[in-house]
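[Q] Does anyone have a clean structure-token version of this?
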Amino acid sequence: MRPLTEAPANGAGVWPAVPREVAEVLRPELDRATEEVIGAIQREVPEYARPHDDHYTSVVRRAVHQAVHQFVQRIADPATPTETTAELFTGIGRIEAAEGRSLEPLQAALRLGARVTWRTLCEQAVQGSLSVGVIGPVGEALFLYIDELAAACAEGFTRASAEVAGELERRRRRLLDLIVTEPPVSRDAIIDLARAAGWPVPRKVAVVALEDRSQDHFGPLPALPPDVLVDMTRQDPCLLVPDPDGPGRADMIERGLRGWTGAFGPAVPLSRAGCSLRWARQVLALGRRGAIRAGRGLIHCEEHLTSLVLLSDEELARVLSSVWLTPLARLRPSQQDIIAETLLAWLQNAGNARLAATQLHVHPQTVRYRLRQIHELFGAALAEPAARFDLEVALRARQLLRGAAKLHMSS
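[A] Here you go.
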């Protein structure tokens, strides 16, 4: 902390030369001046008008008393140590930050104190106690002194604000950890920490899983809405979006994360946030492997829920595909892909060969020819609704698994 007597390096703000006897003229007026300053502050600065708050009133009185007496002592001896006053006003700046106010009320109080003190000086000049020649230097000293007090307040305010912001950020990261933990922690624990973090508890949330990447190379995370909880220090970086279904909410997150790769988990109740994160991670992994189509930007889990279900247990998906698609083993590998693709298109189009042909970009007669092979391979199963459903699921699983395998081979 810089003492109040320390002058700036450029020479500005050097304490003016004031005759020391001026201090003796002012001393008898100190108590009256102190009371006038306190009264003016409590009348004209609403934030400090707390007549029933004895502790706060005592802080104001102590600060004004210290400031006024220190000023006169500085006139008597410019080398007077000022650390105590600097610490006092730095502490006041910290109080302002802790109570959530800006520095404006405090600065207004300092300006008001300077005006009241200046008026007292002018009265002394009129009465002949002070010569007109010293009013200028004393006034210069007064306003330099107020600047020093304001600087001490600002230092305390800045430090406390940084500490509050850091503590708040730690609480928000801890809150995010609690919310996405599986199994979930108690709602009461989340509510208590959310209150301490200044975070309104929403009804529904969605978790966005992000690709980890070097902050040195890619720069900081873009600005996001203040109610979004973010933790890029986790092993699995993520953010939690309250009320993700709100108007324009998803678009706002998309814009904020432009240039990032991630997966937007489904909207779920707060107690199921861990599930949203788990599904988002799984979809992100599927996108990396090529099992689902994913470019730059965010993959939305809700567009890939079927794929997520089918590949949530890949070994089981392989078994399912193997059991239901055993007849394909009679064909050559190149034929297997053609017949599987045709059967899936036919099933997806409710058995309409013409629509299946459009989807496959081939002639309808080609599809009908392949369907004769399909009926020979799968027989009566094609006429049973339950079997047709299982076949479609098995074919979708085969398609997803083969897509992921091709990407792996090419990389």
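[Q] Thanks! Anything notable?
[A] The first strand starts at residue 204 and ends at 210.
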